[in-house]
Amino acid sequence: MKSNNMTRKLAMAGLLTAVAVVGGMFSIPIGAAKCSPVQHMVNVIAGLLLGPGYAVGAAFVASLIRNLIGTGTLLAFPGSMCGALLAGLLYRAGGKLPYACVGEVVGTGILGALLAVPIAVGLLGRTATLFAFVPSFLINTIAGSIVAALVVTALDRTSVFRDLRAAMR
Question: What predicted TM-score, i.e. pTM, was given to this entire model?
């Protein structure tokens, strides 16, 4: 029984990763970052359906693939992974969609943006102040979280999302 649940979660994580990668092809350059609101939507949905561990794994793999195919930057790693982690943790703690959205916004928009600074300076050779990425990360994560809330709410009305959530338990 546990193996079957793990297989379902892994398959869903793979599906959400694919959505993030394909959606990452439509990124929006804001400041120094190449941001993708789709990744933030996926982080919220993964946090709701899969929990923090699988959500972080999906965010990592999506960031890795996006970097390998040239549609992302190294700044995607801290942002997406912190957002996915906090989305999953806050949803687990509060059990409501807004908690996951707030976790995504704080995780990506603030923590991920702050963690992106050493990557930009040390690995990309850019100069950046401590809060250089916060505005661009916040804009995109708020947009992605709003889209996630709209998608989840619409799917909840048709019971699709409840059925998916039940299947992942």
Answer: 0.90
